[in-house]
Specification:
The protein is α/β, with parallel strands linked by helices and 403 residues long. It has 14 helices and 13 strands. Helix 2 runs antiparallel to helix 11. The longest helix has 22 residues.
Length: 403
């Protein structure tokens, strides 16, 4: 077997199942899960209809690059959303969800033959696919801390020059999972300058870009590059998905866009990887990318949900409205001495509410885990259910529950 597989750590939800394995939740309460970031709003009917209408495509093998109409739906959306002009023939590719593409991109970009071993950077806390992708590409993960006092901005200045010199790929997530932080222009400018100096590729994970709470939508990586005169998008790939935007996590549909040279190599990898998008999924995707009304409605539902839930939780947790995404990244009360796993376990047992321990989403570096003492709550259910969960958490804490 591939010896690199032994380096993979259990996925956060596997750790959560183990944490709850011998817990019997209080039967007085119906279960409510805020643990998994799986959208629960209904899939729009017009997307289902487009999928059904496209079933005839099941009779043929799909092209790995997708057909021109599909790629044009990506570039048309990028033009409407970010005022960008990309070539549908050379600067975009369909992918089977951003998770699949994040992993595959690392396998394309990383040159494991280098000595010393290459490095892949990611924020800490982070989406665990970044770590697994780095390890299985033969690279060493390096975890860059975020700074709570700076709205969880990633502390790129903390990375030593010796690490930058070995870095081949940097994962960023904006809006961030789990923090909800959005990278400002100044941060992009710094990262681009570092990329120019050291030659690494930037993979910008932007799957939460359409769920935001301010009037101005989040800045995207390609948008930042274009504003800074980097219209060739050198060493930059943005990845996005329909899962959160359009409530179709089971469709497994997204796209990547950016540097044409990287896209060309990525297409070659994907041709062998066998990751072509089904024609039926492509038909549904074209319909979804072409419509914004359902996205506006989806965003309004999240805004109403966060407006109802955040003030409740602010009474008992260190939490505030994020810039974007559908997560609350909350600090637990001091009485728990930072034991976020014990907090999640007791909450599940006493009130049948599931949250994800923050330490499961981060790695310990220099004796500190930046998720220690925090929990992630995914507000994906409807407003009534999320509000009920928030009130149970308030009761749990105010009733002086303790480890």
């Amino acid at each position: 077997m591939n010896p690199l597989l032994s380096k993979l750590q259990p996925y956060p939800f596997e750790r959560l199942r183990r944490l709850f394995a011998d817990v019997t939740p209080n039967p007085e309460f119906a279960p409510i899960s805020l643990g998994i970031g799986e959208p629960k709003h209904p899939t729009p009917e017009f997307i289902k209809q487009a999928l059904s209408a496209g079933l005839g495509a099941l009779a043929v093998y799909p092209a790995t690059a997708g057909d021109l109409k599909l790629r044009q739906s990506f570039t048309a959306w990028l033009q409407r959303r970010y005022a960008l002009e990309l070539d549908p023939a050379t600067q975009v590719l369909p992918v089977n969800g951003s998770r699949e593409a994040l992993f595959a991109l690392a396998q394309t970009v990383v040159d494991a033959s280098k000595t010393p071993a290459p490095v892949v950077l990611s924020p800490n806390p982070f989406y665990q696919i970044y770590e697994g992708a780095a390890l299985l590409a033969g690279a060493e993960p390096y975890y860059v801390p975020s700074v709570p006092a700076r709205n969880f901005a990633v502390d790129w200045d903390s990375v030593p020059a010796a690490v930058w010199e070995r870095t081949q790929l940097v994962f960023v997530c904006s809006p961030g999972n789990p923090t909800g932080a959005v990278m400002p222009m100044e941060e992009w400018q710094k990262l681009f300058a570092l990329s120019d100096r050291y030659g690494f590729v930037i993979a910008s994970d932007e799957c939460y870009s359409e769920i935001y709470f301010r009037d101005e939508p989040p800045l995207g990586g390609l948008e930042a590059a274009a504003r800074l005169g980097r219209g060739d998008f050198r060493n930059l790939i943005a990845l996005t998905s329909l899962s959160k935007r359009s409530n179709v996590p089971g469709l497994r549909s997204g796209f990547v866009a950016g540097d044409a040279a990287i896209i060309k190599s990525f297409l070659l990898y994907r041709t062998y990887h066998g990751s072509a998008m089904s024609g039926a999924v492509a038909a549904a995707s074209i319909a979804a990318w072409g419509d914004e009304a359902h996205v506006v409605d989806n965003r309004a539902q999240y805004r109403a949900k966060f407006a109802a839930v955040t003030p409740l939780l602010e009474k008992v947790l260190d939490v505030r409205l994020p810039d974007a995404s559908f997560y609350l990244w909350a600090g637990i009360p001091a009485a728990w001495q930072g034991d976020d796993a014990a907090f999640a376990r007791a909450l599940h047992a006493q009130y049948n509410v599931t949250v994800l321990p923050g330490s499961y989403l981060a790695r310990e570096v220099n004796g500190a885990n930046p998720g220690h003492g925090r929990i992630r709550m995914a507000l994906v259910a409807d407003t009534a259910e999320c509000t009920e969960a928030a009130q149970r958490i308030v009761n749990f804490i105010q009733n002086r529950a303790h480890p």
